[in-house]
Amino acid sequence: MLEAVLFDMDGVIIDTEPFFLRSESMLLKEFGVDTELEYHFRYQGTTHEYMWETMKNEFDLDAPVAELVERANVIRNRLMEEDGLQAIPGVIPFISRLHAAGIPLAIASSSPLKDIHKAVKALEIETYFSYFVSGESVAHPKPAPDIFLDAAANLNAKPENCVVIEDSRNGVASAHAAGCKCIGFRNPAFPPQDLSLATVIVTDFSGLDAAYCSALIDR
Prior knowledge:
It holds the Pfam family HAD_2. It comes from Trichococcus ilyis. The protein is an alpha/beta fold. The protein folds into two domains: 145 residues, HAD superfamily/HAD-like (Rossmann fold, 3-Layer(aba) Sandwich), CATH 3.40.50; 68 residues, DNA polymerase, domain 1 (Orthogonal Bundle), CATH 1.10.150. The chain has eight helices and six strands, in the order βααααβαβαβαββα. The protein has a six-stranded parallel β-sheet with strand order 3-2-1-4-5-6, sandwiched between helices. α1 packs across α3 and α2 crosses α3.
């Protein structure tokens, strides 16, 4: 029986991936490092700290990780203020259908909690969700299962009775490790990630509802 649906945020609910990619690339250029766009896809679904610690070591960046994270956040926030936050097409009606069916919902995102609350408030969907958890709040970030196990526990749901909505290789691997069913969202606007561990892969949310998610539990 379906007990809960757990959403990633970036790239699933809000279309923030372009802002992440641009801010990462822009900050690296300040250190004289040029990267291809595809380079940054490997960090989708990871925490900011893990990403910048890895890039600091790889490119020998002369700045503390905390400073790199903050400088990237400043750039990204400026870009988002200039262009505005946009929801992934079809996801808010999907969330609304689940909520109307009485399915408990959570957001389990690697982004900081303050960014999660800022985004759901901007999109006016805060009341749909019963729980929010950030990668900062668990011992091990995605692709470890911690974040989805935490979300399931706080919704009083068994992981095997939860459906996760994810768009990244790390996120899908995290859901798989947690024992959850997973809908892998493949955004046609981006090069495809490896979502092979997902229970099913979709390219839009138009046909998804509580019945669809419930059927996945028995697969």
